[in-house]
Amino acid sequence: MNDDTTKLRGSHALSKVPELTLIFWVIKILATTLGETGGDAVSMSMNLGYLVGTAIFGVIFLIAVIAQIKAEKFHPILYWATIIATTTVGTTLADFADRSLGIGYTGGSALLLTLLLISLVTWYKVMGSISVNTVSSPKVEMFYWVTIMFSQTLGTALGDWTADTAGLGYSGGAIIFSVLLLLVLAAYYYTSLSRTLLFWAAFILTRPLGAVVGDFLDKPIAKGGMELSRYTASISIFVIIVVLIMVFPQRAAKGAGH
Length: 258
Description:
Structural class: mainly alpha
Strand content: under 5%
Largest sheet: none
Number of strands: 0
Shape: globular
Order of helices and strands: HHHHHHHHH
Number of helices: 9
Number of domains: 1
Distance between the termini: 22 Å
Low-confidence stretches: 1-12
Mean pLDDT: 87
């Protein structure tokens, strides 16, 4: 098999990420919410702290990413398990940076935004595209999951900054990020802006939305939350995600060559 044939087949390979349907975004928001409640359950409710929590979820994240990369095709359960792993490690890592390192929500958000942009720029420089339709090789998958991990971590810090530092509270933060997502949706239908750019904007914005919704569910009533059990909230959201994956079959996104 010559190099041209290999490139041709590679260009038409199915991506190892799901098609971008409505159910994708619903599960994504639920997964980010689960990341917040699940991360807080381990670091706060279990009193293990942010550093230990980050170490635990970091190991789970690495195992999930390795399994995802080794898989020969798209598997919904494996994909969403990896997404959830990025959201939980993102929660504890952001909390560790913001609180334990003492740089605050503003400093944490700025640092993580910088890391996210570096990841995206490096990915583009090396591979020539940051489109999710190209996620079909181990090298691209590495860039994809590192970028997602940074975006999930940034989302936690940004959600906390909006709710606490900006003083908007959890419900206010949820409204802000919901409106921003609606603006991205409007841009998708009514403008010619890059679909890749709009995807990453939406993907990043769903994380702080999930973060403030998660905090709204489990934070004390005195602080504007509902004070639900983190364990109960996490298990309930997890069950809903599993049901959605089972009820609504997802297909792999078409490769860049389609």
